[in-house]
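[agent] plan:
  1. take the single chain provided in the ticket
  2. run structure prediction with default settings
  3. attach structure tokens to the ticket
  4. add a short note for the reviewer (M.T.)
[agent] executing step 1
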Amino acid sequence: MPAVPVAAEATSRTATSPSLRYDAGVAQLVVDGRLYLVRGGEVHNSAASTPEAARSSFAAAAAVGVNTVLAPVPWDAFEPVEGQFDPAVVDMLVAAAREAGLRLILLWFGAYKNGASSYAPAWVKTDPDRFPRCLDEEGARTGTLSPFSAATREADAHAFAAMVQRVEEIDAQDRTVLMVQVENEPGLLGHSRDHDPHAEELFAAAPPADVLEAAGITAPQPGWTSAFGDGLDADEHFMAWGFATYIDAVARAGRAHTTLPFFTNTWLDSEIDLPGSALAGGQRPGTYPSGGPVAGMLPLWRALAPHLDLIVPDIYFGDFSEICATYGAASDGLFIPEMRRDAQGVGDAFVAVGQHGAIGVSPFGIDSITEPEATHLRDGFELLAAVDPDLHPGHERRGFHIPPSTDSDAHVDLRFGGVRLRATRLVPFGEVAAPAQGAFGVVIRLSATRFLAAGRGFTLTFHDPAGVRQIGLLSVLEHPRSPSHDDGERPVLRRLNGDETAGGTAWFHPALAQQQSEVFPIPMSLQHSGVSTCEVYWLD
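[agent] step 2 finished; step 3 output follows
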């Protein structure tokens, strides 16, 4: 399809646009009038760069059980010639998602991708006078476009607006596209600050009042070093101001054409530092992209980028639950567009959705996954579908994950008012070590005495937080993954008791890879759908 200019006016909508709804200040994604949980997968950067490649990679994603695929729209492919946009770049992704039966989240790879600018068009890359690069301390050009350039910002914003306008033109009827990511892991990688002459002038000038207010500084300051000290803190605040205002301008341009939710993602600072890898961790601005929305810069980003609905973390390292809590609180909502796809990632997904109310999760590299990872991820997605928020809106839920690397005595306490559930890893009779999968799940309180659980590898026991009353199991029912009755009730596969409940004292969910004990002669029943309900009672 030849490159053509995009029409100037967006098509009026005939279907309800996906949106964020806020329940008690926490974002929920609404699609077609119902709550929607993104069980997503992001494909590799170049996996959907042609129609054939998009169809192949999206089909591979669908085979793992995702309901949503994340794929990039590169600026250099969408606007190969300045002012001429190639709509086929967007069209092929939407068509491939529909063919695979998936929803789609578009990732705008504009001026910034992983702290560099490799997806900028040739006409931008080859004109450094008009589109300046960040300079290092020695005055050498880096691979990152300067966020302080008005020409770059306007060109990027113009292209982004044309891209979302094209989405509205072709997708208003079906609403395949759910959200749009603005840039990808922005910041300056390799250096703490831009030393371009224009940037140096800005750095020597007084910081804007909204920067100081977001940083909790009440008095005007003559320069960035007077406000933040003569060191890396000043550099990072300065670059955060540059990148946040840049990306907000891009998002603002797109907002004129669509109401789809916008977000940007974060390359986190981390204590992990892999030798020989520039993509893992670091604690100094520049070892991770300086100026990006890491935890310490979130107040500044939220103040300076109001046209972003969410600022979200890409989580591969660190304390998963703590990171979720930090970003969920800062953005009034949580989404994870990149995370691990292995067994660790599967368990983490249950923490994000069950404990932190994430609107979705998306392991990266979904299209190249192989066994046994694919089996674990497919199983995890099916279990998450069984506890989809739309099936049980408004009910209390808790998520947990006990990794296989933790001590065999590790546990997680799940509080539901006057009931405390203790989750531990399920160990076969006569064994000491738990299976390699770990334990993970989501527990939902359906009523005062009834609970629903989905997950693998755990034992749940019930306790009175006050230590006064005894709580016992009346019944445990195993169910298929999804309800099939019109009233939402689930059919029953088995009524569990005896050995399958430790004599009525525990709620078991065997791991997917649970094995019989090699030393204990009485076998366990290891087959389980991963979904069950229980009824409890109290004795004074």
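[agent] step 4 note for reviewer: The domain at 398-539 is CATH 2.60.220.20 (Chondroitinase Ac; Chain A, domain 3).
[agent] ticket updated
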